[in-house]
Amino acid sequence: MKLEGLPLFKTPPDEESEPLDRTKPPKHLTVSELTAKIRGILEPTFAEVWVQGEVSNTRPAASGHLYFSLKDATATIAAASFGWSKRRPPFEVKDGLQVLVHGKVSVYPARGNYQLIVDRIEPLGAGALALAFEQLKTKLAAEGLFDPRRKRTLPPFPKKIAVVTSPSGAAIRDMLNILRRRAPHVEVLVVPAVVQGDEAPRQLIGGLDAVNQYGLAEIVVLARGGGSIEDLWCFNDENLARAIARSKLPVISAVGHEIDFTISDFVSDLRAPTPSAAAELVTGHWADVSRQVLQARDRLRSFVVRDLAQRRNLLAHLSARVVSPLDKLREQAQRTDDLAMRLERAMKTRLEHRRLAMGRILGKMEALSPLKVLERGYSIAMKDDGTVVRSRAQLNPNEIVTVTFHDGKAQAKIL
User: Fold this and answer.
1) Edge-to-edge order in the sheet of strand 219-224
2) Distances (CA, A) of 194 to 200, 323, 330
3) Whether residue 7 has pLDDT greater than 50
Protein backbone atom coordinates (compact mmCIF):
# COMPACT_ATOMS: atom_id res chain seq x y z
CA MET A 1 0.00 0.00 0.00
CA LYS A 2 1.44 3.39 -0.98
CA LEU A 3 1.69 5.96 1.84
CA GLU A 4 3.12 8.84 -0.24
CA GLY A 5 1.32 12.12 0.35
CA LEU A 6 -0.54 10.78 3.47
CA PRO A 7 0.46 12.03 6.95
CA LEU A 8 0.89 9.38 9.64
CA PHE A 9 -0.94 11.54 12.19
CA LYS A 10 -3.47 14.20 11.23
CA THR A 11 -3.22 17.53 13.10
CA PRO A 12 -6.53 19.04 14.24
CA PRO A 13 -7.50 22.05 12.12
CA ASP A 14 -7.43 24.48 15.06
CA GLU A 15 -3.82 23.65 15.87
CA GLU A 16 -0.88 25.11 14.06
CA SER A 17 1.22 22.66 12.13
CA GLU A 18 4.23 22.86 10.04
CA PRO A 19 3.61 22.80 6.30
CA LEU A 20 4.02 19.36 4.75
CA ASP A 21 7.18 18.91 2.84
CA ARG A 22 6.10 16.90 -0.19
CA THR A 23 9.68 16.42 -1.35
CA LYS A 24 10.21 13.61 1.22
CA PRO A 25 7.85 10.87 2.46
CA PRO A 26 5.89 11.43 5.73
CA LYS A 27 6.59 9.53 8.89
CA HIS A 28 5.28 5.99 8.44
CA LEU A 29 5.34 2.38 9.76
CA THR A 30 6.10 -0.79 7.90
CA VAL A 31 3.54 -3.60 7.99
CA SER A 32 5.77 -5.57 10.34
CA GLU A 33 6.16 -2.57 12.67
CA LEU A 34 2.41 -1.96 12.76
CA THR A 35 1.74 -5.65 13.40
CA ALA A 36 4.31 -5.66 16.20
CA LYS A 37 2.69 -2.62 17.85
CA ILE A 38 -0.77 -4.26 17.63
CA ARG A 39 0.66 -7.47 19.02
CA GLY A 40 2.34 -5.58 21.86
CA ILE A 41 -1.02 -4.09 22.86
CA LEU A 42 -3.26 -7.11 22.24
CA GLU A 43 -1.32 -10.03 23.73
CA PRO A 44 -0.59 -8.56 27.20
CA THR A 45 -4.23 -7.44 27.50
CA PHE A 46 -5.60 -10.93 26.73
CA ALA A 47 -2.82 -13.10 28.13
CA GLU A 48 -5.28 -15.48 29.80
CA VAL A 49 -8.95 -15.83 28.79
CA TRP A 50 -11.78 -18.35 28.92
CA VAL A 51 -13.99 -18.34 25.82
CA GLN A 52 -17.18 -20.29 25.16
CA GLY A 53 -18.41 -21.12 21.68
CA GLU A 54 -19.16 -23.71 19.02
CA VAL A 55 -16.36 -25.49 17.18
CA SER A 56 -16.37 -25.20 13.39
CA ASN A 57 -13.98 -25.63 10.47
CA THR A 58 -11.86 -28.19 12.34
CA ARG A 59 -8.52 -28.89 10.62
CA PRO A 60 -6.24 -31.35 12.45
CA ALA A 61 -2.68 -31.23 11.09
CA ALA A 62 -0.32 -34.15 10.56
CA SER A 63 2.08 -32.47 12.98
CA GLY A 64 -0.35 -33.04 15.85
CA HIS A 65 -1.53 -29.43 15.98
CA LEU A 66 -5.25 -28.63 15.84
CA TYR A 67 -6.67 -25.64 13.99
CA PHE A 68 -10.33 -24.66 14.22
CA SER A 69 -12.72 -21.74 14.55
CA LEU A 70 -14.80 -20.77 17.57
CA LYS A 71 -18.09 -19.07 16.87
CA ASP A 72 -21.35 -17.90 18.36
CA ALA A 73 -24.41 -16.30 16.81
CA THR A 74 -22.64 -13.14 15.62
CA ALA A 75 -18.87 -13.62 15.62
CA THR A 76 -16.07 -16.05 14.76
CA ILE A 77 -12.47 -16.24 15.93
CA ALA A 78 -9.66 -18.49 14.67
CA ALA A 79 -8.05 -20.82 17.20
CA ALA A 80 -5.07 -23.14 17.34
CA SER A 81 -3.95 -25.75 19.86
CA PHE A 82 -0.35 -26.81 19.35
CA GLY A 83 0.52 -30.42 20.18
CA TRP A 84 -3.14 -31.27 20.86
CA SER A 85 -2.94 -34.91 19.73
CA LYS A 86 0.15 -35.53 21.86
CA ARG A 87 -1.82 -34.69 25.02
CA ARG A 88 -3.95 -37.82 24.53
CA PRO A 89 -7.30 -35.97 24.77
CA PRO A 90 -10.23 -38.03 26.07
CA PHE A 91 -12.54 -36.73 23.36
CA GLU A 92 -12.50 -35.70 19.72
CA VAL A 93 -12.85 -32.05 18.80
CA LYS A 94 -15.23 -31.84 15.87
CA ASP A 95 -17.60 -29.37 14.25
CA GLY A 96 -20.72 -28.50 16.21
CA LEU A 97 -19.24 -29.26 19.64
CA GLN A 98 -19.98 -26.66 22.32
CA VAL A 99 -16.78 -26.04 24.26
CA LEU A 100 -15.12 -23.83 26.85
CA VAL A 101 -11.50 -23.07 25.92
CA HIS A 102 -8.64 -21.50 27.87
CA GLY A 103 -5.71 -19.71 26.32
CA LYS A 104 -4.42 -16.35 25.15
CA VAL A 105 -4.99 -14.02 22.24
CA SER A 106 -2.10 -13.78 19.80
CA VAL A 107 -1.38 -12.15 16.46
CA TYR A 108 -0.20 -14.25 13.52
CA PRO A 109 2.04 -11.85 11.57
CA ALA A 110 2.09 -13.86 8.34
CA ARG A 111 -1.63 -13.18 7.79
CA GLY A 112 -2.04 -10.15 10.01
CA ASN A 113 -4.97 -11.66 11.95
CA TYR A 114 -5.48 -12.41 15.61
CA GLN A 115 -6.28 -15.87 16.98
CA LEU A 116 -6.71 -17.82 20.19
CA ILE A 117 -3.77 -19.99 21.26
CA VAL A 118 -5.62 -22.73 23.19
CA ASP A 119 -4.06 -24.88 25.88
CA ARG A 120 -7.24 -26.40 27.35
CA ILE A 121 -10.58 -27.50 25.88
CA GLU A 122 -13.59 -28.62 27.90
CA PRO A 123 -16.73 -29.93 26.13
CA LEU A 124 -19.94 -28.37 27.41
CA GLY A 125 -22.64 -30.33 25.58
CA ALA A 126 -21.17 -33.78 26.19
CA GLY A 127 -20.72 -33.12 29.89
CA ALA A 128 -24.28 -31.91 30.30
CA LEU A 129 -25.70 -34.88 28.40
CA ALA A 130 -23.65 -37.33 30.43
CA LEU A 131 -24.92 -35.79 33.67
CA ALA A 132 -28.53 -35.91 32.45
CA PHE A 133 -28.07 -39.56 31.40
CA GLU A 134 -26.73 -40.59 34.81
CA GLN A 135 -29.44 -38.68 36.69
CA LEU A 136 -32.27 -40.31 34.69
CA LYS A 137 -30.62 -43.72 34.95
CA THR A 138 -30.44 -43.41 38.75
CA LYS A 139 -34.05 -42.24 38.96
CA LEU A 140 -35.50 -45.06 36.85
CA ALA A 141 -33.35 -47.67 38.55
CA ALA A 142 -34.69 -46.54 41.92
CA GLU A 143 -38.23 -47.01 40.58
CA GLY A 144 -37.41 -50.60 39.56
CA LEU A 145 -37.66 -50.14 35.79
CA PHE A 146 -34.32 -51.91 35.32
CA ASP A 147 -35.16 -54.82 37.63
CA PRO A 148 -34.46 -58.13 35.81
CA ARG A 149 -37.48 -59.70 37.52
CA ARG A 150 -39.88 -57.51 35.53
CA LYS A 151 -38.29 -58.37 32.19
CA ARG A 152 -40.39 -60.47 29.81
CA THR A 153 -39.18 -63.62 28.07
CA LEU A 154 -39.04 -63.58 24.28
CA PRO A 155 -41.16 -66.19 22.49
CA PRO A 156 -38.84 -68.84 21.00
CA PHE A 157 -40.63 -69.08 17.63
CA PRO A 158 -42.15 -65.66 16.81
CA LYS A 159 -44.24 -65.55 13.66
CA LYS A 160 -44.53 -61.76 13.49
CA ILE A 161 -42.01 -59.08 14.47
CA ALA A 162 -42.55 -55.31 14.59
CA VAL A 163 -39.57 -53.01 14.05
CA VAL A 164 -40.02 -49.37 15.08
CA THR A 165 -37.38 -47.45 13.14
CA SER A 166 -36.71 -45.17 10.21
CA PRO A 167 -37.86 -46.99 7.03
CA SER A 168 -35.07 -45.31 5.03
CA GLY A 169 -32.19 -46.12 7.36
CA ALA A 170 -29.44 -48.68 6.87
CA ALA A 171 -30.46 -50.45 10.10
CA ILE A 172 -33.77 -51.78 8.74
CA ARG A 173 -32.15 -52.90 5.47
CA ASP A 174 -29.57 -54.95 7.37
CA MET A 175 -32.26 -56.44 9.60
CA LEU A 176 -34.51 -57.42 6.70
CA ASN A 177 -31.62 -59.13 4.90
CA ILE A 178 -30.85 -61.24 7.96
CA LEU A 179 -34.51 -62.05 8.68
CA ARG A 180 -35.14 -63.16 5.10
CA ARG A 181 -32.08 -65.38 5.14
CA ARG A 182 -32.62 -66.99 8.55
CA ALA A 183 -36.44 -67.14 8.77
CA PRO A 184 -38.13 -66.12 5.51
CA HIS A 185 -41.57 -67.23 6.76
CA VAL A 186 -41.56 -64.73 9.67
CA GLU A 187 -43.67 -61.65 8.94
CA VAL A 188 -41.94 -58.32 9.61
CA LEU A 189 -43.94 -55.15 10.25
CA VAL A 190 -41.95 -51.92 9.87
CA VAL A 191 -43.45 -49.11 11.98
CA PRO A 192 -42.03 -45.82 10.62
CA ALA A 193 -40.59 -43.30 13.09
CA VAL A 194 -37.83 -40.72 13.06
CA VAL A 195 -34.91 -41.86 15.21
CA GLN A 196 -33.11 -38.56 15.77
CA GLY A 197 -34.12 -35.12 16.98
CA ASP A 198 -36.79 -33.62 19.21
CA GLU A 199 -39.69 -35.29 17.39
CA ALA A 200 -38.21 -38.79 17.66
CA PRO A 201 -39.38 -39.75 21.21
CA ARG A 202 -43.02 -38.96 20.42
CA GLN A 203 -43.00 -41.02 17.23
CA LEU A 204 -41.16 -43.93 18.85
CA ILE A 205 -43.68 -44.00 21.69
CA GLY A 206 -46.56 -43.80 19.22
CA GLY A 207 -45.25 -46.74 17.21
CA LEU A 208 -44.63 -48.84 20.32
CA ASP A 209 -48.09 -48.11 21.75
CA ALA A 210 -49.80 -48.86 18.42
CA VAL A 211 -48.20 -52.30 18.16
CA ASN A 212 -49.30 -53.07 21.72
CA GLN A 213 -52.81 -51.70 21.33
CA TYR A 214 -53.65 -53.73 18.24
CA GLY A 215 -51.49 -56.78 18.93
CA LEU A 216 -49.66 -56.38 15.65
CA ALA A 217 -46.67 -58.54 16.59
CA GLU A 218 -45.20 -60.85 19.19
CA ILE A 219 -41.94 -58.92 19.63
CA VAL A 220 -41.16 -55.21 19.21
CA VAL A 221 -37.67 -54.05 18.21
CA LEU A 222 -36.56 -50.43 18.62
CA ALA A 223 -33.74 -50.05 16.10
CA ARG A 224 -31.29 -47.38 15.00
CA GLY A 225 -27.78 -47.41 13.59
CA GLY A 226 -24.74 -45.82 15.20
CA GLY A 227 -24.12 -42.14 15.82
CA SER A 228 -22.92 -39.58 18.31
CA ILE A 229 -24.39 -39.16 21.79
CA GLU A 230 -26.51 -36.32 20.43
CA ASP A 231 -27.80 -38.51 17.56
CA LEU A 232 -28.85 -41.29 19.96
CA TRP A 233 -30.19 -38.99 22.66
CA CYS A 234 -33.85 -39.57 21.80
CA PHE A 235 -33.47 -43.12 23.16
CA ASN A 236 -32.62 -41.58 26.56
CA ASP A 237 -36.06 -39.97 26.79
CA GLU A 238 -37.87 -40.65 30.07
CA ASN A 239 -41.30 -40.98 28.45
CA LEU A 240 -39.95 -43.53 25.99
CA ALA A 241 -38.43 -45.51 28.86
CA ARG A 242 -41.79 -45.62 30.63
CA ALA A 243 -43.55 -46.64 27.41
CA ILE A 244 -41.13 -49.56 27.08
CA ALA A 245 -41.75 -50.55 30.70
CA ARG A 246 -45.54 -50.61 30.27
CA SER A 247 -45.42 -52.54 26.99
CA LYS A 248 -47.32 -55.82 27.09
CA LEU A 249 -45.10 -57.21 24.36
CA PRO A 250 -41.40 -58.02 24.83
CA VAL A 251 -39.19 -55.16 23.64
CA ILE A 252 -35.67 -55.44 22.24
CA SER A 253 -33.49 -52.32 22.21
CA ALA A 254 -31.09 -52.36 19.23
CA VAL A 255 -29.60 -48.88 19.22
CA GLY A 256 -26.20 -47.83 17.92
CA HIS A 257 -23.09 -49.97 18.12
CA GLU A 258 -21.91 -52.37 20.79
CA ILE A 259 -20.19 -49.60 22.75
CA ASP A 260 -23.28 -47.35 22.79
CA PHE A 261 -25.63 -47.53 25.78
CA THR A 262 -28.96 -45.73 26.16
CA ILE A 263 -31.72 -45.71 28.75
CA SER A 264 -33.85 -47.86 26.43
CA ASP A 265 -31.16 -50.57 26.64
CA PHE A 266 -31.56 -50.81 30.41
CA VAL A 267 -35.37 -50.78 30.53
CA SER A 268 -35.98 -53.11 27.56
CA ASP A 269 -36.44 -56.83 28.01
CA LEU A 270 -33.31 -57.50 25.95
CA ARG A 271 -30.47 -55.33 24.63
CA ALA A 272 -28.97 -56.19 21.24
CA PRO A 273 -25.51 -54.76 20.47
CA THR A 274 -26.63 -53.75 16.97
CA PRO A 275 -29.80 -53.93 14.85
CA SER A 276 -28.28 -56.86 12.92
CA ALA A 277 -27.68 -58.71 16.19
CA ALA A 278 -31.35 -58.16 17.12
CA ALA A 279 -32.44 -59.83 13.88
CA GLU A 280 -30.24 -62.82 14.70
CA LEU A 281 -31.56 -63.02 18.27
CA VAL A 282 -35.26 -63.12 17.35
CA THR A 283 -34.68 -65.80 14.70
CA GLY A 284 -32.23 -67.89 16.72
CA HIS A 285 -34.58 -70.85 17.36
CA TRP A 286 -35.96 -70.78 13.81
CA ALA A 287 -32.43 -70.93 12.46
CA ASP A 288 -31.59 -73.82 14.79
CA VAL A 289 -34.60 -75.83 13.61
CA SER A 290 -33.79 -75.17 9.96
CA ARG A 291 -30.21 -76.19 10.55
CA GLN A 292 -31.33 -79.41 12.26
CA VAL A 293 -33.60 -80.27 9.33
CA LEU A 294 -30.78 -79.70 6.86
CA GLN A 295 -28.40 -81.77 8.99
CA ALA A 296 -30.93 -84.62 9.19
CA ARG A 297 -31.34 -84.53 5.40
CA ASP A 298 -27.58 -84.62 4.90
CA ARG A 299 -27.19 -87.50 7.37
CA LEU A 300 -29.91 -89.50 5.65
CA ARG A 301 -28.39 -88.88 2.24
CA SER A 302 -24.95 -89.89 3.51
CA PHE A 303 -26.37 -93.05 5.02
CA VAL A 304 -28.04 -94.06 1.76
CA VAL A 305 -24.94 -93.34 -0.29
CA ARG A 306 -22.74 -95.25 2.16
CA ASP A 307 -25.13 -98.19 2.23
CA LEU A 308 -25.20 -98.35 -1.55
CA ALA A 309 -21.41 -98.27 -1.69
CA GLN A 310 -21.17 -101.09 0.83
CA ARG A 311 -23.62 -103.21 -1.11
CA ARG A 312 -21.74 -102.62 -4.36
CA ASN A 313 -18.47 -103.55 -2.67
CA LEU A 314 -20.02 -106.70 -1.24
CA LEU A 315 -21.39 -107.68 -4.62
CA ALA A 316 -18.02 -107.13 -6.23
CA HIS A 317 -16.38 -109.26 -3.52
CA LEU A 318 -18.87 -112.10 -3.93
CA SER A 319 -18.65 -111.92 -7.68
CA ALA A 320 -14.93 -112.37 -7.46
CA ARG A 321 -15.21 -115.43 -5.20
CA VAL A 322 -18.23 -117.23 -6.63
CA VAL A 323 -17.89 -119.07 -9.91
CA SER A 324 -21.29 -118.98 -11.61
CA PRO A 325 -22.70 -118.58 -15.05
CA LEU A 326 -22.49 -115.12 -16.58
CA ASP A 327 -26.27 -114.77 -16.72
CA LYS A 328 -26.51 -115.40 -12.97
CA LEU A 329 -24.05 -112.61 -12.33
CA ARG A 330 -25.97 -110.29 -14.63
CA GLU A 331 -29.18 -111.12 -12.79
CA GLN A 332 -27.60 -110.32 -9.45
CA ALA A 333 -26.20 -107.09 -10.83
CA GLN A 334 -29.62 -106.10 -12.14
CA ARG A 335 -31.22 -106.86 -8.79
CA THR A 336 -28.61 -104.69 -7.09
CA ASP A 337 -29.33 -101.83 -9.46
CA ASP A 338 -33.05 -102.25 -8.84
CA LEU A 339 -32.42 -102.05 -5.11
CA ALA A 340 -30.33 -98.95 -5.61
CA MET A 341 -33.07 -97.26 -7.64
CA ARG A 342 -35.68 -98.27 -5.07
CA LEU A 343 -33.58 -96.86 -2.31
CA GLU A 344 -33.07 -93.64 -4.22
CA ARG A 345 -36.81 -93.39 -4.90
CA ALA A 346 -37.51 -94.10 -1.24
CA MET A 347 -35.08 -91.38 -0.30
CA LYS A 348 -36.74 -88.89 -2.63
CA THR A 349 -40.20 -89.91 -1.38
CA ARG A 350 -39.16 -89.51 2.22
CA LEU A 351 -37.66 -86.11 1.58
CA GLU A 352 -40.76 -85.06 -0.35
CA HIS A 353 -42.98 -86.17 2.55
CA ARG A 354 -40.88 -84.11 4.93
CA ARG A 355 -41.08 -81.11 2.60
CA LEU A 356 -44.86 -81.45 2.27
CA ALA A 357 -45.23 -81.78 6.03
CA MET A 358 -43.21 -78.65 6.52
CA GLY A 359 -45.37 -76.86 3.91
CA ARG A 360 -48.54 -77.93 5.74
CA ILE A 361 -47.17 -76.61 9.00
CA LEU A 362 -46.28 -73.27 7.40
CA GLY A 363 -49.69 -73.15 5.74
CA LYS A 364 -51.42 -73.69 9.09
CA MET A 365 -49.28 -71.00 10.65
CA GLU A 366 -50.21 -68.58 7.88
CA ALA A 367 -53.89 -69.55 8.06
CA LEU A 368 -53.98 -68.81 11.79
CA SER A 369 -52.79 -65.24 11.24
CA PRO A 370 -55.52 -62.72 12.22
CA LEU A 371 -54.79 -60.69 9.10
CA LYS A 372 -55.52 -63.69 6.89
CA VAL A 373 -58.89 -64.08 8.59
CA LEU A 374 -59.68 -60.45 7.80
CA GLU A 375 -58.66 -60.94 4.17
CA ARG A 376 -61.25 -63.72 3.82
CA GLY A 377 -64.03 -61.20 4.43
CA TYR A 378 -64.28 -61.19 8.20
CA SER A 379 -64.06 -57.99 10.25
CA ILE A 380 -63.70 -56.90 13.86
CA ALA A 381 -66.14 -54.51 15.50
CA MET A 382 -64.87 -52.47 18.44
CA LYS A 383 -66.56 -50.01 20.75
CA ASP A 384 -65.14 -46.60 21.58
CA ASP A 385 -63.41 -47.94 24.68
CA GLY A 386 -61.58 -50.58 22.64
CA THR A 387 -63.88 -53.47 23.66
CA VAL A 388 -64.30 -56.11 20.96
CA VAL A 389 -67.99 -56.76 20.15
CA ARG A 390 -68.60 -60.49 20.50
CA SER A 391 -72.39 -60.43 20.98
CA ARG A 392 -75.38 -58.51 19.73
CA ALA A 393 -76.31 -57.90 23.35
CA GLN A 394 -73.31 -55.59 23.73
CA LEU A 395 -74.74 -53.11 21.20
CA ASN A 396 -77.20 -50.30 21.73
CA PRO A 397 -79.24 -48.39 19.14
CA ASN A 398 -77.47 -45.37 17.61
CA GLU A 399 -74.14 -46.50 19.03
CA ILE A 400 -71.07 -45.87 16.88
CA VAL A 401 -68.64 -48.77 16.46
CA THR A 402 -65.34 -49.05 14.61
CA VAL A 403 -65.12 -51.91 12.09
CA THR A 404 -61.64 -53.14 11.16
CA PHE A 405 -61.16 -54.77 7.74
CA HIS A 406 -57.98 -56.20 6.27
CA ASP A 407 -57.29 -52.96 4.39
CA GLY A 408 -58.47 -50.32 6.87
CA LYS A 409 -61.18 -49.17 9.24
CA ALA A 410 -64.64 -47.66 9.04
CA GLN A 411 -67.25 -46.41 11.50
CA ALA A 412 -70.78 -47.80 11.62
CA LYS A 413 -73.93 -46.72 13.39
CA ILE A 414 -76.15 -49.35 15.04
CA LEU A 415 -79.73 -49.22 13.81
Assistant:
1) 187-192, 160-165, 219-224, 251-255, 270-271
2) 5, 84, 76
3) no
